[in-house]
Amino acid sequence: MWRGLWSLAARAAHWPHRLCTRQSSGALDPGPAATIFALSSGQGRCGIAVIRTSGPASGHALRSLTEPRNLPPARKASLRLLSDPRSGEPLDRALVLWFPGPQSFTGEDCVEFHVHGGPAVVSGVLEALGSVPGLRPAEAGEFTKRAFAHGKLSLTEVEGLADLIHAETESQRRQALRQLDGELGHLCRSWAETLTKALAHVEAYIDFGEDDNLEEGVLEQADKEVRKLEVALDAHLRDARRGQRLRSGAHVVVTGPPNAGKSSLVNLLSQKPVSIVSPEPGTTRDVLETPVDLAGFPVLLSDTAGLREGVGPVEQEGVRRARKRLEQADLVLAMLDASNLASPSSCNFLDTVVAPLGTRNPSGSSPRLLLVLNKSDLLPPEGPGPCPDLPPHLLLSCLTGAGLHGLLEVLKKELAAVCGDPSTGPPLLTRARHQHHLQGCLDALGHYKQTKDLALAAEALRVAWGHLTRLTGGGGTEEILDIIFQDFCVGK
Ligand SMILES: Nc1nc2c(ncn2[C@@H]2O[C@H](COP(=O)(O)OP(=O)(O)O)[C@@H](O)[C@H]2O)c(=O)[nH]1
Ligand SMILES: [Mg+2]
After folding, report:
1. Is 268 near ligand 1, meaning CB less than 6 Å away?
2. What is the pTM of this model?
3. At how many degrees (to 10) do helices 58-65 and 119-130 cross?
4. Given the CA of residue 266, which atom of ligand 1 is nearest to it?
5. Which SUPFAM superfamilies does this entry report, sorted A to Z (predicted)?
6. Residue 34 per-residue DSSP state
7. Fewer C-beta within 10 Å: the chain N or C terminus?
């Protein structure tokens, strides 16, 4: 039995190597670090600007620029006179913060200078820092790269941080913050842990299959873990497009017959004159796309040509483009003139566009539909009159704004369905990279299930594990050894 344990330990000792060779996107080598500095707040005149440094010479840089020259207490704001170390010329009276590593954003010694935000102050301090030996200007993203290299952030957290910096809508901010908090990383790590267990079971069977001391049913246990994981991954992948829409914007397309008020609605929702509004039918021909924040969700709103047949070649091309854009829509705002529902163009639109979209297929791959009856101000007080075949709809007047509040409420619900609600539910996959690795993991689990050869099965689990760890950009393998001794009673 001891020979068996040793061989298991030796095998496990090789895993890190085998697994790590696949981790091309794993943790970076921090390397011999220069000390970097940069303006971390926005460019231009402002009240306060934040300049920071990271690296071993940070403390020296702080002492070189400040009076008195001793380091301030760690992580406490201190008011200091900053001066140019070459000439002694005063530059600013500023708050400075000293973050000795590893308790800092990058894990290295860091300093923050909160200076007055005038361009001359900022450039004076940056120049002074550049004159301190061992300091150089930071490259784009270098602070975050160092935080990743020192294990302060996982890859998904790095992505969350980037998304948070770029977030323009409330939902994007919420989603990014959740990812920065490591929710997606935690989930992937718990999946990787499940795989580690399954792998440990299979490897143990390979080594001790004949051994009476091995617990019974280890392979069945591994199969069970894999099945559970497959279900979880599958559910997440089905939702994958939602997170990506939340990050880059949902495609909302306004369509309808000519003169229904499509361009008026696009201008109303975007609060700017994106499209020409005119009583002349066929005014809009190109697809006009504008990014808007709709009820807190990022949206790419498209105005399109009115759908009608038998028009000149230019408008025909517009209609072709409109139909093509409809195919790419996540949500369709179908618009009709409420005072003109019985017209041939309205009936034709209801039959050829609204009815097919209304019967959504169960896989959810067709876009969602919202029918809006515009120009309610032209209706008699008793309403639009009998329209028995009309699917659920909303009344709106782009002219008076009546019904706009209700439309925005419904849009919020529809967009939450399209993008996923970042305040609830499991963390979303916001990038194609996440989707790629989860799919890779799922494919590898498929191979695991198919093969009868235990060595190939173990290899498939390693491939699956590799995908999950690459998703978060790290992950050690000593954990496999730990689990073997924790979870098993070999030789008990
Ligand atoms: N009475 C009324 N007229 C509207 C309303 N919305 C748009 N219109 C008018 O309808 C005409 C066509 O509007 P437009 O937005 O260009 O329609 P599109 O062809 O569907 O893009 C214009 O003269 C608008 O001023 C509305 O709610 N009430
Ligand atoms: Mg138009």
Report:
1. no
2. 0.68
3. 120
4. 15
5. P-loop containing nucleoside triphosphate hydrolases (SSF52540), TrmE connector domain (SSF116878)
6. P
7. C
Q: What is the mean pLDDT of residues 15-33?
A: 42
Sign of the Cα pseudo-torsion (202, 204, 206, 211, in order)? negative
CA 398 to chain centre: 34
Residue 303 CA: nearest ligand 1 atom is 21
Q: Which atom of ligand 1 is nearest to the CA of 276?
A: 16
250 backbone φψ class: left, alpha, beta (φ>0; ψ -120 to 50): beta
Rounded Cα distance between 94 and 116, Å, is 7
What is the DSSP code string of 43-87? SSS-SEEEEEEESTTHHHHHHHHEES-SPPPBT--EEEEEE-TTT
Q: Which residues make beta-bridge pairs with 252?
A: 301, 331
Instruction: Kindly give, in sequence order, each residue whose CB lies less than 8 Å from that of residue 362, ignoring residues fewer than 6 positions away.
Output: none
Please write the tens of the pLDDT for every residue from 66-94: 977 889 999 999 999 999 999 999 999 99
Residue listed under structure tokens 């979870």: 487
378 lines ligand 1 (CB under 6 A): yes
Q: Of 365, 438, 421, 375, nearest to 401 (Cα)? A: 375
Q: What share of the chain is helix, strand, coil (3-state, %, to 5)?
A: 50, 15, 35
Residue pair 51/115 in contact by the 8 Å Cβ criterion: yes
Residue whose Cα lies nearest atom 11 of ligand 1: it is 279
User: Which residues fall inside 5 Å of ion ligand 2, going by CB?
Assistant: 262-263, 284
Q: In what order do the strands lie in the sheet with 368-374?
A: 288-294, 297-303, 250-255, 331-337, 368-374, 393-395
The CA-based angle 29-33-34, given to 5 degrees, is 150
For ligand 1, say whether the CB of 345 is within 6 Å of any of its atoms: no
Among 17-31, 86-100, 263-277, 314-328, name the one with the lowest average pLDDT: 17-31
- Separation CA 459–CA 477 (nearest Å): 15
